[in-house]
Automatic annotation (TrEMBL):
Protein name: ABC transporter ATP-binding protein
Residues in ABC transporter domain copies: 23-253
Keyword Nucleotide-binding: yes
UniProt key word ATP-binding: yes
Pfam families: ABC_tran
Gene3D superfamilies xref list: P-loop containing nucleotide triphosphate hydrolases
Superkingdom: Bacteria
Gene Ontology MF annotations: ATP binding
Key words of the record: ATP-binding, Nucleotide-binding, Transport
Length: 284
């Protein structure tokens, strides 16, 4: 354990602030619209993420991944069942969960530092704010970029700032909606490693929406697959499987032992890896 971790644990206020939370969906469902226009997107979602777990939510486009995540962040209430954080229902945006999206959503006229500041709890004293932002810049590898504006930094850096802003309130739950989806492949890998690094230092519970099977395998303790029940192919989505990922993080990207899981997850998403391999060799 690092010295820094020991120092944090010695300060009860900080140790408490970085405590991870349990997120629980119980009979969760979401219907948009009413009457004739009612459209039920999710139904019967029962699932709990344990404090400190990294859970990926995987599913085809439009199956309700963002809807599920938004409910945990208080951005769109359940229409059936409940979402709770540490046993207390989520009824609106509160300080227990923070969200980062695929687009970094930075304010272009504010510096990196001032964008991160936006995530701090209202009324944070100036000196404490400066220290907190310094620490977040360091944590996300942005220490030398604090005075730059969003148009002066790369897409990967902008996502680092977005993460730092989400972390600024020390959330017990970090909700990430395809946070690396718009980045090139190499930057994406670096950001995945950064996320694991951050998680080691600030072990919040993470719900990560992705449609990238390899990303899910690389980062998660468990993968929640959303999809339609086979019997009702135009019905709402629900959890079709929960797949534990073996081994400790950080995982070796070249580990072929995860190959069978990869094939299984792709099959859940409707991709037949054997057919794909056959098609490839036929065109060689
Ligand atoms: N605010 C909304 N009003 C009506 N329908 C919505 C709203 N948000 C999402 N939906 C619908 O819910 C379904 C799931 O959307 P979403 O959760 O964004 O899927 P995913 O993130 O898995 O791609 C889609 O059919 C979408 O059109
Ligand atoms: Mg989405």
């Amino acid at each position: 354990m690092s010295v820094q971790t020991d120092v944090r644990a010695a300060d009860p206020a900080i140790a408490d602030a970085i405590r991870a939370s349990e997120v629980r969906f119980t009979g969760f469902g979401k219907t948009f619209g009413t009457g004739e226009a009612a459209h039920t997107v999710l139904a019967d979602v029962d699932f709990a993420a344990a404090p400190g777990e990294i859970i990926s939510i995987l599913g085809a486009s439009g199956c309700g991944k963002s809807t599920l995540l938004r409910a945990a962040g208080g951005l769109g209430p359940a229409t059936a069942g409940t979402v709770t954080i540490d046993g207390t229902p989520v009824t609106g945006i509160d300080g227990r969960a923070a969200v980062a999206f695929q687009e970094p959503r930075l304010l272009p006229w504010r510096t990196v530092r001032r964008n991160i500041e936006l995530g701090l709890p209202r009324g944070t004293p100036k000196a404490a704010a400066r220290d907190a932002v310094d620490e977040l810049l360091e944590l996300t590898g942005m220490s030398t970029k604090g005075e730059l504006r969003p148009k002066q930094i790369s897409g990967g850096m902008a996502q680092r700032v977005s993460l730092a802003r989400a972390l600024a309130r020390n959330p017990g739950v970090l909700l990430l909606d395809e946070p690396f989806g718009a980045l090139d492949a190499l930057t994406r890998i670096k950001m995945q490693d950064l996320l694991l690094d951050i998680h080691r230092q600030r072990p919040a519970t993470v719900l990560l929406v992705t449609h990238d099977v390899d990303e899910a395998l690389q980062l998660s303790d468990r993968i929640v697959v959303l999809g339609r029940r086979p019997s009702e192919d135009d019905g709402p989505s629900t959890i079709t499987s929960i797949v534990p990922v073996p081994g400790q993080r950080p995982r070796d990207r070249a580990d072929s032992g995860l190959g069978h899981l990869r094939a299984e997850l792709l099959a859940h998403l409707g991709v037949d890896t054997h057919a794909a391999a056959g098609a490839r060799s036929a065109s060689d």
